[in-house]
Amino acid sequence: MNEQRRAPRKRPDxxxxxxxxxxxxxxxxxxxxxxxxxxxxxxHTPRSEAVYQVxxxxxxxxxxxxxxxxxxxxxxxxxxxTPGQIWSGYRIIAIGTADAAQxxxxxxxx
Length: 110
Prior knowledge:
Layout: E1 17-20, E2 25-33, E3 37-42, E4 51-57, E5 67-79, E6 86-95, H1 97-108
Antiparallel strand pairs: 1-2, 1-4, 2-3, 3-6, 4-5, 5-6
């Protein structure tokens, strides 16, 4: 399998629910995150190439848990090893300056 990632991915060390801001429903749980994409684990198969506006909490250096908002587009999905779960890869297509800075700070944390 060819590695197509452009940026290193980081796994959260806590449960992160990614929420669709339009429906206010969970889209899935964050598997990993980079500056330009994410892996979500969900129970529902996303539409191919669907675009979503989502919120996800990322801890700040001061211990707070601000939520960032990003626009994402589905790139691929496949059944996970666990029955009833779907793995989906998303590309970040829109993110504000402050949210991008928060994401970069989180990615740099050890």
